[in-house]
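QUALITY CONTROL LOG
STEP: pairwise intake check
CHECKER ROLE: data steward
CRITERIA: each record must contain a sequence immediately followed by its structure tokens, with no blank fields

ENTRY 1 OF 2
RESULT FIELD BELOW
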Amino acid sequence: MGMEMDKSTRLVPIDQFRGFAILLMILSNFLMGVAGLPAWMKHARDVGLTAVDLVAPFFIFAIALAYPLSWRRRLQREGATRAAEHFFERYMAIAGIGFIMTTIWVPVEDTSWGEPWGVLQAIGAAGLVTLAVIAFKPIWRCLLGLAMLGTYQYLLDNYWLENVRGASHGGIRGALSWGAMLILGTALAGLYHAGGKRRWLFPLAGAACMAAGAAMAPWVPISKERVSASYVLVSLGASALVFAGFDFASERPRFRSSVLSAWGRNPLLLYILHFFLLGVFVLPVVPWWYAEAPWWLTIAQATALAGVLSAIALFLQKKNWYFSL
């Protein structure tokens, strides 16, 4: 990972949405170890859906929005072979960082996890799966993503259920479903990037994804633990609609957030840094300080965590630096 000057023209709504997603990921990680919080502020246990269950899909969708653009730029500048090598190295590095962070953090956080697997490993694996089809047209990516999702659901129902439920983010088997989510996200992104009248199809397609996932729910339960097909479609549709809100707001300067844009420019660095800052709250073996903290202390700590990372993000933005793989 290197530090570079950001000389490219950035898409403000994508930066802001990415920043929003990574901020929510960090806050949900902080709240995960706090007892006494309402159920909607934590992941659903097996079947069900909470607001927190949508956080990882938001970030997956932020990647999906940028993936085709980044691929085309690399393809035009360096050719197919070098572009593929770059994306392969990028997502292998993300997965590798995830394995390192999981090895450090899980013994402190939760020794009940089965596989050494976390969100960065899921993102890395999804990125590698998407690389195999990113050169195809959006319609073909959509069909291949749906086929992959259907295959995963069949394997989940018949062979994988207990293994997937026993692993964070579905483990290595769940990576097939996260990969399908990212592939389908790049297909939706194709509508957004098409511009003109076709862009209006983007929120409609997002709403259709949500409706399809909800319609499947009686037969295919919505579950982040299972990374079920219904969960993928509902969360993908929700991500598209939330991003459409950011896109709408970005056209009105008074609704733009420089803080979220700053977060969106250095998401991986901020995510890595937050693990070290979490140690301030998690490592002291004092129940009232973190696990059993009163609500006012939890709010103060979460605000401090977000504030420190926001200051770092704004400093990097002021210097026009970003860290990339």
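ENTRY 2 OF 2
RESULT FIELD BELOW
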Amino acid sequence: MILSLKSAAYAALASFLMCGLILLTRRWHDRFTVDGHEGIQKVHTDPTPRIGGLGLMLGVLIGWWVDEQDAAIGDADNLLGWMLVASLPAFIFGLLEDLTKQVSVRKRLLATMASGVLAYVLCDCGITRLDLPWLDKALAWAPVSILFTAFAVAGVANAYNIIDGFNGLTAAAMIVALAALMAIAYEVGDAKLIYFATVYIGAIVGFMAWNYPLGRIFLGDGGAYAMGFLIAWMAVMLPARHPEISPWASLMACGYPVMETIYTMLRRKLTQKNSGAPDALHLHSLVKKVIIRPRFQQFRAAIRNAMVMITLLPFIALVAITGVVFYRDTALLMAAFAGYFALYVLSHRALFRSRFAHDAGVTSHA
């Protein structure tokens, strides 16, 4: 554990310094790297660098290199190295979107699925069970397992990208997920996965020091897809390495972004909207428009932006904690996920239909 904390500290420092360097050199790369303030999903008021993913990935790389040099963590450092290799398609295509604004959602998802296939081969594990007998039979066949794993991992990575936009929200959701997965890994004595989680958290904390609360730098698609992939793959590995752990515990750790993605797809399908098109009707967007903006107009825009994370954090944490407490009980976790999803939908509908939503100009179909 001491070695893991040392790696986390190095990861945090590297991520912090890289993000600081990006901010110091803005005048040389702003035309390529800033995220403008115009667009239906934009909630910030100033052009902001969106390549914070470079800091995250450098942080994880340095955290890995520290233990690679020390070699006292066993073969966990080698496994993390392979995971970093596997994450490259997701990271590269996400970063290209950050720089060019011309890489489609479909291409980014396919690249992240490619990362899932690479990880399946390099790490020699994947999703082979969901504790549902009728589906587990199909997952016992390697081609089905590979495709399902790639699809699931890409879906979770994309889910973190979908909730990105408010200062600290995605980073906090990632830390909650990693803390939950680490807690379960501790319960089953998996030092490797504890090591991974601490390194990832360190890199995120280094980025978050610049991102929260004022939003001086953003994760961007590169950071959201790459770190989302690494978290998703840790969620895959945990039940794969420990049969006593329900795969639904991993799902609960990433519960909030997954629920957001599922509901977004459903409502866009019902309203015949392009499932990949941006909109401003996510739950976090409604929280900002309906709860934060009307009640805290005295605060500057960046602070109101940051308050969205604080408002949603209790729900994000509650879902993940449920996965930790009942990590062995598939039936209970399935019921809990359904219950939390219903609560999410009801909250979304209530915010959309409130009188404040009308005052805020929320008029599109939800």
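INTAKE CHECK: passed for both entries
DESCRIPTIVE NOTE, ENTRY 2: The chain has 16 helices and two strands.
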